Amino acid sequence: MVRLRQGDFAREQVYDDDPVRVARRFAADGASWVHVVDLDGAVAGRPLQAEVIGAIVAAGSGGSGLGSIRVQVAGGLRASGAIDAALAAGATRVVVGTAAITAPDLVARVLADHGPERLAVALDVRAGFAVGHGWVQGAPAALFEPALEGLAQLGVATFVVTAIERDGLLGGPDLALLGRAVGLTDADVIASGGIATLADLEAVRAMGCRGAIVGRAIYDGVIDLSEAIDRTTGP
Predict the structure, then answer these.
(1) pTM
(2) Which residues pair with 94 in a beta bridge?
(3) Residues in Cβ contact with 196 at an 8 Å cutoff, skipping those fewer than 6 apart
(4) CA–CA separation, 132 and 148 (whole Å)
(5) Which residue, 175, 204, 202, 176, is CA-closest to 190?
(6) Mean of the pLDDT values across residues 91-113?
(7) Spatial separation of the C-alpha atoms in residues 124 and 132, rounded to whole Å
(8) DSSP run (H or E) holding 125
């Protein structure tokens, strides 16, 4: 299990060499979803860790102590075949980022074939632009707000909004960015990037985000997952 800072592979930290074990631990702490990213695939533009992700999905289907945890898969899903394969393998939901910027017709096809509940769109934002291709220099980009509004009009029901400059740094979420996202759409907005404390989780929930992705804060022991779930679920 690897965590990057601001998407930079030169600032990589390895936490565990058994992703299924990590997912099992999350399930034991009460998580109902696990967010899995194929980092190599995000850069290559095609899935490269399908076997590992398949093992996590299989475990989440009732084996290996994960119970019925739902798996959200991201990274390198830029072609219909890769998306179809991930869903056929048992992923509850796929996350499309680059393809949402460069090929919105693909998003429309996935929505038509699988329904909005099986798709989330990742908008990874830097300097007002949603950036694709694993955030590498020169990656395709689109203005954040028009991109979100256009994709919402296509029928996207879930957006994962990440402030790239805060990702993996434990400096707190970009509440202004998330507030704009929530205000622009009736779709669910999932907060990502910089979440470091229970107060951060409560803040994004209070502003209307329907979920949050937390990585480094859990791995570093800054946030206790069980306590976070207790504090931020329910009415």
Answers:
(1) 0.87
(2) 73, 119
(3) 170, 171, 172, 217, 222, 223
(4) 14
(5) 204
(6) 95
(7) 7
(8) strand 119-126
CB 198 within 8 A of CB 216: no
CB atoms within 10 A of CB 99: 23
- Cβ(15)–Cβ(39) below 8 Å: no
The CA-based dihedral angle spanning residues 68, 69, 70, 76, taken in that order and rounded to the nearest 10 degrees: -130
More confident residue, 138 or 66: 138
CB of 41 within 8 A of CB of 76?
A: yes
Sign of CA dihedral 112, 181, 136, 169: negative
For 168, phi and psi rounded to 5 degrees?
Answer: 75, 10
Tens digits of per-residue pLDDT, 30-87? Answer: 998 999 988 888 778 888 888 888 888 887 655 444 567 899 999 989 999 999 999 9
As a whole number of angstroms, the distance between CA 42 and CA 46 comes to: 7
Amino acid at 193: G
CATH topology for the 2-232 domain: TIM Barrel (3.20.20)
Backbone phi, psi, residue 49, to 5°? -120, 35
Question: Phi/psi of residue 12, each to 5°?
Answer: -95, 140
Pairing of strands 129-131, 188-192: unpaired
Say how far apart CA 85 and CA 82 lie, in whole Å: 5
Characterize the bridge pairing of strands 129-131 and 158-163.
Answer: unpaired
